[in-house]
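Thread: "does anyone have the structure for this chain?"

Original post by V.I.:
We have the sequence but no experimental structure in hand. Need at least a predicted one for the grant figures.
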Amino acid sequence: MKRALVADAEARGLTNIKFLDPVPQHQMPALVAAADIVLVPLKMHIPGAVPSKLYEAMSSGRALVAIASGEAAEIVSRHRAGVVVAPGDTSGLTRSLVDLARNSSYREQLGAEARQAATTQFDRSVAIARFVRYLEEQLRVVPPRRLAMRVQNDSISNLAMNQYDQSQGSESHST
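Reply from O.Q.:
Generated one for you, tokens below.
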């Protein structure tokens, strides 16, 4: 596939396209940040899963063209991080790339929005802190007694409840 694309680009005399060999993962951020536009092709939507390459592209501070549907497309649209093109829409892809190539201020605006969302919404430390807060809130909402293992008419359950009540200075339950 790559050979055919390289040959086609050469035959057309296209000099603004670079075909690179694979690079180590640690070199990717600098390589992506050097681009004017980041193309993020996501062939299929997997409910509940967004590939990390979307977040990596957003953190580059470059405008995205996401070939996507589902949650990935919604993230790009909601955060104004780039343009979304439906998988298989080659004319939409062409139009989006040409529009972005011709409008540097729009590219910069999308790139800034992408970077902002990546650092404030999708950074791992932010996501972990948000998850910890959620768990803490849930622990405040659900009484500790309900968190204990309960098996109806089971002495183990009653024993666990009695031990918890004793540790809290409450009266124990009788069976």
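V.I.: this helps a lot. The mean pLDDT is 82.
O.Q.: and Residues 130-167 form one domain.
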